[in-house]
Amino acid sequence: MIKMLKKEIIEEVTKSGIDIDGLIEGTYKEPVIEVYNCHEWDHGYYGGSGYNGTRREFYEDLREMTAFLYKYMNECNIKEVIIAPLHRGEIFAWKGDMKKDEGYSDIYIEVMEFLKKNNIGKYTQSGVKIAIDSNMKIIEMILEGAYRHVITLCLFFPEKAVMIEPTHHFNLEFFMKNFEREKKIITNLIKNHQNLRYYESLPPFEMY
Predict the structure, then answer these.
(1) Could you report the per-residue pLDDT of 51-83, keeping only the tens digit for each?
(2) Which residues contact 17 (CB under 8 A, 6 or more apart)?
């Protein structure tokens, strides 16, 4: 694992051709692909809206989304990912005391341990570059933290010029340089996942 500062990460994203300034300023004008779960969870199994399912269902859906993401990364021969808040500007989504909140303390503590291990402060915009192989649990942690609306970390693949943002709506939002290429790959892969859905949008659209 390699720690990266905000400046270094922004340089990598800019070099890829993704309009990171547009994402930060809310003026992004490229199409976005969204992969989401048919249950349409909102804030996880403790959410007050969205699908009112069990914790077991939530984690079954999380495993399916993680499996889809790994199939995508394998299909694209992606070896490394940069994990950082990117255009979100901060690592944590909720400002309350996660340590005392029974519904979120587990994932909060897990993410904090990951940050401390990599010498990343919770109020910074630094990130970390990790290898895809052998780090599925870390990537699954990022998805879970986002789906439960605890963190706002994104996944950036420099070699693919693709950035993925998981949000509390239990989805994966793809921001990319080559829309048609990614659309073809994603639509082919999603056919093997009966609970996942495909959606594409053009600006203006809501940024979560």
Answers:
(1) 989 999 999 999 999 999 999 999 999 999 999
(2) 161, 177
Residue 162 has pLDDT above 50, yes or no: yes
Nearest residue to 207 (alpha-carbon basis) of 35, 47, 38, 27: 27
pTM above 0.90, yes or no: yes
Phi-psi group of 100: left, alpha or beta (phi > 0 → left; psi -120 to 50 → alpha; rest → beta):
alpha
DSSP labels for the chain?
-EEE-HHHHHHHHHHHT--HHHHHHT---S-EEEEEETT-EESGGG-SEE----HHHHHHHHHHHHHHHHHHHHHTT--EEEEE-GGG--SBS--S-GGG-TTTHHHHHHHHHHHHHTT--TTS--EEEEESTT-HHHHHHHHHHHHTTSB--EEEETTTTEEEEEETTTEEEEEES-HHHHHHHHHHHHTT-TTEEEEEE-SS----
